[in-house]
Design a protein that fits this description.
This protein has 3 helices and no strands. The chain has 82 residues and is mainly α.
Length: 82
């Protein structure tokens, strides 16, 4: 059975894999779009009367931190390549 940390790592890896399918110049934008979507989800979940089962602010925050690091990685790779 997967733990929440495993699910977060899997989700970030899926986003990384999706970004790698795009041209190098579009990878950071793809991750940024996913980051924005996850921030909207977190906001919606916080405002909801009943949060989804297994969801917590701390775990979602961990995912957002992972996506921010991934976006920075792709942005820095773009600068190095230029």
């Amino acid at each position: 059975m997967q733990t929440e940390a495993d699910r977060i790592a899997t989700a970030i890896q899926r986003i990384r894999d999706g970004a790698m399918l795009r041209p190098a110049g579009q990878r950071a934008a793809y991750v940024a779009e996913n980051l924005r979507r996850q921030q909207e989800n977190a906001q919606r979940f916080v405002m909801a009367r009943k949060q989804p089962a297994g969801w917590s602010v701390a775990l979602h925050e961990e995912m957002l931190h992972g996506l921010i690091a991934l976006e920075a990685e792709f942005r820095n790779a773009g600068r190095v390549a230029a």
